[in-house]
């Protein structure tokens, strides 16, 4: 079995909270996370966008920067970006082999009692590749939660919490306060933390933890500098809030002595790209597809708001290609999204956790009885059916669905 196949075989171990395994793995690799300065980004929604924004600005300011995000849409290399480019296949294979040897060695000497998870292994790979690339900064997105997420072994110079909303309740808790407590676990003693627009009950928890750890708490809406009008590279009104978080992170880095400057911030926010976030694709016949990674109620609400803006510009309601994972709040997503939709094509993405399309269709009928519904699988056929129905098609509900469709479109 080659190293990458070995890596993917670790997916069978699912999600495992805790830092013991990743610490053992990194120690075996010589602690590559110590080789660069890191910025740690958590949040229910927006953390990937903020990670991309901060990385974009750092590169505009002339720094050698990397970013680690998850999950990937099509190819594993998307998770590991250095100087704005996904790592080369050969470099990724080399890192996977290093990590495999580290795992086998740690199991042999008893440092590890069992194989790590796929995410623990990719996190170790990221840090190993970033060290080898000689990056100055790495912007690290939390995988899930924060406190016990594998990325929380880093010693960042700035942290950020973009938003707090309901998602992954089975792991993070059923109240905003519980979820905030998990995400605030990335706050480190004496390290500034930027906080986005969160509900008072969540903010109170973050504020308390920051105070206990002597971490300066910075509100994202507390502007330090005037930038003038900026046309963000990412679409959607919700990206304004994400940009504010990114700006405060970057201004905090400046206060810590990192050279950035106003123009680099403006240029980086203007040119940032982040696939699958209100991404528009135009087909040869002029039909348009909007790809969005909305996979929880807050993300679906942001997408619906964007679509209502398009309606105001004279467009008819689009067709929606929809799928979801079984553990998601499907009713919460559909309740806010369906009023902006003219027809739904339900499908099943290539992931074993995908919800049954017939069950999804039944839930749609319960929420919007008059809305036309089709059930078409696989996603490529669903997309073809939707584009025959409408000149504007939205694909949302699951990141895995997005990956399938982007592969079909030749992303």
Describe the 3D structure.
- The protein has 411 residues and is an alpha/beta fold.
- It folds into 2 domains: 3-271, 3-Layer(aba) Sandwich (UDP-N-acetylmuramoyl-L-alanine:D-glutamate ligase); 279-409, Mur ligase, C-terminal domain (Protein-Tyrosine Phosphatase, Chain A).
- The protein is built from 15 helices and 14 strands.
- It has helices spanning 3-9, 20-28, 47-60, 89-108, 118-133, 169-172, 176-183, 200-212, 238-255, 262-271, 297-312, 330-337, 357-367, 379-389, 399-409, and strands spanning 37-42, 65-68, 80-82, 85-86, 137-141, 158-161, 193-195, 217-219, 279-282, 288-291, 319-322, 343-346, 373-375, 392-396.
- The longest helix is centred in the N-terminal third of the chain and has 20 residues, at 89-108.
- It is globular, with a radius of gyration of 21 Å.
Strand order, largest beta sheet: 4-3-2-5-1-6-7-8
The helix count comes to 15
- The poorly predicted ranges are none
- CATH top-level class of the largest domain: Alpha Beta
Question: What proportion strand?
Answer: 5-15%
Beta strands, count: 14
List the helices and strands in order: HHEHEEEHHEEHHEHEHHEEHEHEHEHEH
CATH architecture of the largest domain: 3-Layer(aba) Sandwich
Number of domains: 2
Q: Any idea of the CATH topology of the largest domain?
A: UDP-N-acetylmuramoyl-L-alanine:D-glutamate ligase
Q: What does the main sheet amount to? A: 8 strands, mixed
- Cα distance, first to last residue? 28 Å
Nearest-angstrom radius of gyration?
21 Å
- What is the CATH superfamily of the largest domain? Mur-like, catalytic domain
Given helix and strand content, the structural type is alpha/beta
Give the overall shape, derived from the CA principal axes.
Answer: globular
Question: Considering DSSP H and I runs of 4 or more, what fraction of the residues is helical?
Answer: 40-55%
